[in-house]
C-alpha cells in the first residue's frame, strides 16, 4: 500500500486521509448540536441517569414551557433583535459614509486618520470596561438599550472594509460626473455610492448582526433589569438558577441558537466569503 | 471672471474637505467618548479606591500592591495562559489540516463540509459554554464521564479540579474557533498557485512533503495573523469560565478578565479591577510587540532568501 503513488487510483492514501479529516471534523462539529437537541427533548430525571440518553425524547414542548415560566424568552429575543438590527443599520450607514470619504474624497490628514482607525482595532475593548460602565451610569443609560447601541456603532473593521470595497467597486468617473452635475458630497454618497455597494452591506451586515446578537460581557454589565435582558444574558440567568433543570436549560439554549443557524444557512456562502476576504486583505 | 472661477474652486475643495471631516467624525467622536477616554481613565482609576457609589479616594499604589499579593490574581494570569495555549495551539494545527483537506482537488461535497465545520462559530459563546457544561458535568451522567467509564476511569469533577477545568474550557474554545480559522487558512491556501503543487507531484512529493514544503511556507503570513488574533482573543477569555464555573469562579479556572469583572461588579472594588485591567493591558502590549517583532524577523529572512 505504501508503495502506491499519492493521488493515484481510486482508493489512494490521500483520498482516505482527506475524507477521514473532513468526516471527523464534521462529526465533531455537529455532535454538540445533536446532544443539545436530545437534552432539550428530555426530562431532567432522564438526563440524570447512567447511561445518559442519546436519542430524542418527547418533552420538547414541555421543556420550552418551563423556559418561558422562568425567563421572558420572547421578550429577550425581541430585545436581541431590536439591538442587533439597530446597531447593524447604524454601523452600515456610518462605516460606508466614512469609507466613502477615505476612498474618494481628498482631504488633509487622510492617511493619518486612517492609520489611527487601524490602530484602534488592536486595542481590546475590555481594557476600558470599568470607566465605560461609569460613563453609562453618568449618562443615565443603565438598563437602556442606548448603552449597547451607541458604543456598538464604533467599528474600525467596518470602515476599513467599506473603504476597500468602495475604492475598488465605485469608479472615479461616476463620482466626478455627479460632482459636475452639482451634487453635494452627501447626495453623491446617498444616490450614487450606496446603490453600488449593496452587496458589501449584506456581507458586513451579517457579520455585525451576528456579533451583536452573540455579545455577552457588555450587555451583562449594563443591562441589569430582566426586562431589558438580551438572549445571551437571559440564558445565563436560566443557567444560574439554584435548581439545575438540564432539560429546560438546553431547551432555552436550543431555541436561542436555532434562529441564528437558520440565518446562517440562508447567507452561508456570502458570509464565509466575506469573512475570508476580510482576513486575507 | 477668472477670479470667481478660482474662488469657486477654492470653496469647492473646502466644501469637500468639510464634508469628508463630517463623514469620518462620528467614529472619532464615539471612539473618544467610549474608547479612548475610558482607557486613559482606567489608569487614573487604578490609583483610587472606589465602590461605584461614594466619591473616589486616592490611595496611591495600594490597588496594585493588593492584586500582586492576591494569589488568585496570579492564578488568573496562569490560567489565562494555560487555557489559551491548550485551546489555541492544537486548534491551529487541526484547522490547517482541515483546510488542507478542504482545498484538495479530489473531494465531493466541499461546500457541505465547509458549512458543517464552520457551524460552531455562529453559536454564541454562552450557548457553547452551557452545552459543554453538560458534556463536562461532574456527575457520572455527564458525557465525558460516561465515556471515561468505559475505560474504568473517573468520574472526574470537571469544574473543580486543576487540569480538568482548563481542559474543559480549552475544549470550548477549540470547538467554537476551529472552523473559523479553517476558513481563514482555506482562503490563504486558495491563493497559492496550483502549479506549485503540480510541479511537486511530478517530482514525486508525498502529501506530507507538499504540506510541509509548499503549503506551510506560503501560508506563513496568514499563520502569523491567526496566531496574533488568537493570542489576543484568548487573553480576553471571560464568558466560558463564568458560565462553566458560575458566579463562584473557582481559582482553578478564573481568567484575568473574569477576575476584573468580579472585582468590579460582584465585590464593587472598581480600583483593584482597574489595576488588573492595567496589568492585562501591559501583557497585551508586550505580546503584540513580540508578535510584530517576530513577523518582521520572518519577513526579513524571507526577503534574504528570494
Name the strands of the widest sheet of chain B in spatial order. 1-2
Number of helices of chain A: 14
The CATH class of chain B turns out to be: Mainly Alpha
CATH architecture of the largest domain in chain A: Orthogonal Bundle
| CATH topology term of chain B | MetI-like fold
Task: Quickly give the structural class of chain B.
Answer: mainly alpha
Relevant CATH superfamily of the largest domain in chain A: MetI-like
Largest sheet of chain A: none
- The average pLDDT of chain A is 85
N to C succession of SSEs of chain B: HEEHHHHHHHHHHHH
Low-confidence parts of chain B lasting 5 or more residues at pLDDT below 50? none
Helix content class of chain A? over 70%
Output the helix-strand order of chain A.
HHHHHHHHHHHHHH
Largest inter-chain interface? A-B, 98 and 102 residues
Give the termini distance of chain B in whole angstroms: 59 Å
Helix content of chain B: over 70%
Quaternary state of the chains: heterodimer
CATH A-level architecture of chain B: Orthogonal Bundle
3D shape of chain A: globular
Describe this structure in words.
The complex is a heterodimer of chains A (281) and B (306). With 281 residues, chain A is mainly alpha-helical. Chain A has two domains: 13-61, no CATH class; 71-240, MetI-like (MetI-like fold), CATH 1.10.3720. Chain A has helices at 13-40, 44-47, 60-70, 73-104, 110-120, 129-139, 146-152, 156-169, 172-180, 185-196, 198-214, 217-222, 231-239, 246-280. Chain B is an all-alpha fold. Chain B has a single domain, classed as MetI-like (MetI-like fold), CATH 1.10.3720.10. Chain B has 13 helices and two strands, in the order αββαααααααααααα. Chain B has helices spanning 2-45, 62-68, 71-103, 110-122, 125-135, 143-150, 162-190, 194-202, 207-218, 220-235, 239-245, 256-265, 270-305; strands spanning 48-49, 57-58. A two-stranded antiparallel sheet of chain B has the order 1-2. In chain B, β1 (48-49) and β2 form a beta hairpin. In chain B, α5 packs across α11. Classes of the chains: A mainly alpha (281), B mainly alpha (306). Chains A and B meet through α1, α4, α5, α6 and α10 of A and α1, α3, α4, α5 and α6 of B.
Amino acid at each position: 500500500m505504501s508503495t502506491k503513488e499519492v493521488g493515484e487510483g481510486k482508493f489512494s492514501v490521500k483520498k482516505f486521509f482527506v475524507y477521514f479529516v473532513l468526516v471527523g471534523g464534521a462529526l465533531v462539529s455537529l455532535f454538540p448540536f445533536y446532544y443539545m437537541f436530545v437534552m432539550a427533548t428530555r426530562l431532567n430525571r432522564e438526563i440524570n441517569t447512567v447511561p445518559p440518553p442519546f436519542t430524542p425524547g418527547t418533552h420538547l414542548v414541555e421543556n420550552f414551557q418551563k423556559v418561558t415560566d422562568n425567563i421572558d424568552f420572547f421578550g429577550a429575543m425581541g430585545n436581541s433583535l431590536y439591538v442587533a438590527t439597530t446597531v447593524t443599520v447604524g454601523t452600515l450607514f456610518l462605516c460606508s459614509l466614512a469609507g466613502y470619504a477615505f476612498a474618494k474624497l481628498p482631504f488633509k490628514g487622510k492617511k493619518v486618520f486612517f492609520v489611527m482607525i487601524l490602530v484602534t482595532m488592536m486595542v481590546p475593548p475590555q481594557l476600558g470596561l470599568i470607566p465605560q460602565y461609569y460613563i453609562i451610569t453618568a449618562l443615565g443609560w443603565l438598563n437602556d438599550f442606548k448603552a449597547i447601541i451607541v458604543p456598538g456603532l464604533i467599528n474600525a473593521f467596518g470602515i476599513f472594509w467599506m473603504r476597500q470595497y468602495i475604492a475598488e467597486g465605485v469608479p472615479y468617473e461616476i463620482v466626478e460626473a455627479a460632482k459636475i452635475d452639482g451634487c453635494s458630497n452627501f447626495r453623491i454618497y446617498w444616490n450614487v455610492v450606496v446603490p453600488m455597494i449593496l452587496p458589501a452591506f449584506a456581507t458586513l451586515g451579517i457579520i455585525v448582526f451576528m456579533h451583536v446578537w452573540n455579545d455577552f460581557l457588555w450587555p451583562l454589565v449594563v443591562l441589569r433589569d430582566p426586562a431589558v435582558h438580551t438572549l445571551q444574558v437571559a440564558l445565563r440567568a436560566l443557567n444560574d438558577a439554584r435548581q439545575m433543570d438540564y432539560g429546560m436549560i438546553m431547551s432555552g439554549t436550543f431555541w436561542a441558537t436555532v434562529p441564528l443557524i437558520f440565518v446562517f444557512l440562508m447567507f452561508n456562502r456570502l458570509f464565509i466569503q466575506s469573512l475570508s476576504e476580510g482576513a486575507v486583505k | 471672471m477668472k477670479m470667481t472661477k478660482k474662488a469657486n474652486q477654492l470653496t469647492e475643495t473646502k466644501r469637500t474637505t468639510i464634508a469628508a471631516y463630517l463623514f469620518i467624525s462620528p467614529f472619532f467622536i464615539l471612539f473618544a467618548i467610549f474608547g479612548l477616554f475610558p482607557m486613559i481613565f482606567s489608569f487614573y482609576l487604578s490609583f483610587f479606591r472606589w465602590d461605584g457609589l461614594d466619591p473616589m479616594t486616592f490611595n496611591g499604589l495600594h490597588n496594585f500592591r493588593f492584586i500582586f499579593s492576591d494569589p488568585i490574581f496570579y492564578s488568573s494570569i496562569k490560567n489565562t495562559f494555560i487555557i489559551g495555549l491548550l485551546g489555541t495551539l492544537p486548534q491551529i494545527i487541526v484547522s490547517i489540516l482541515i483546510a488542507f483537506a478542504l482545498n484538495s482537488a479530489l473531494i465531493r461535497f466541499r461546500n457541505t463540509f465547509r458549512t458543517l465545520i464552520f457551524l460552531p462559530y455562529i453559536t454564541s459563546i454562552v450557548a457553547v459554554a452551557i452545552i459543554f457544561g453538560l458534556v463536562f458535568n461532574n456527575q457520572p451522567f455527564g458525557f465525558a464521564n460516561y465515556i471515561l467509564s468505559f475505560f474504568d476511569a473517573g468520574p472526574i469533577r470537571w469544574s473543580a479540579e486543576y487540569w480538568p477545568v482548563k481542559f474543559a474550557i480549552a475544549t470550548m474554545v477549540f470547538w467554537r474557533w476551529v472552523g473559523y480559522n479553517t476558513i481563514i487558512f482555506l482562503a490563504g491556501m486558495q491563493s497559492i498557485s496550483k502549479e506549485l503543487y503540480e510541479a511537486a507531484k511530478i517530482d514525486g512529493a508525498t502529501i506530507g512533503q507538499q504540506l510541509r514544503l509548499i503549503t506551510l511556507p506560503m501560508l506563513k503570513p496568514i499563520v502569523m495573523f491567526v496566531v496574533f488574533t488568537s493570542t489576543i482573543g484568548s487573553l480576553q477569555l471571560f464568558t466560558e469560565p463564568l458560565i462553566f464555573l458560575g458566579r463562584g469562579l473557582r481559582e482553578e479556572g478564573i481568567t484575568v478578565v473574569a477576575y476584573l469583572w468580579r472585582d468590579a461588579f460582584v465585590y464593587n472594588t472598581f480600583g483593584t479591577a482597574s489595576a488588573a485591567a492595567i496589568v492585562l493591558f501591559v501583557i497585551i502590549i508586550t505580546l503584540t510587540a513580540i508578535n510584530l517583532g517576530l513577523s518582521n524577523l520572518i519577513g526579513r529572512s524571507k526577503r534574504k532568501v528570494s
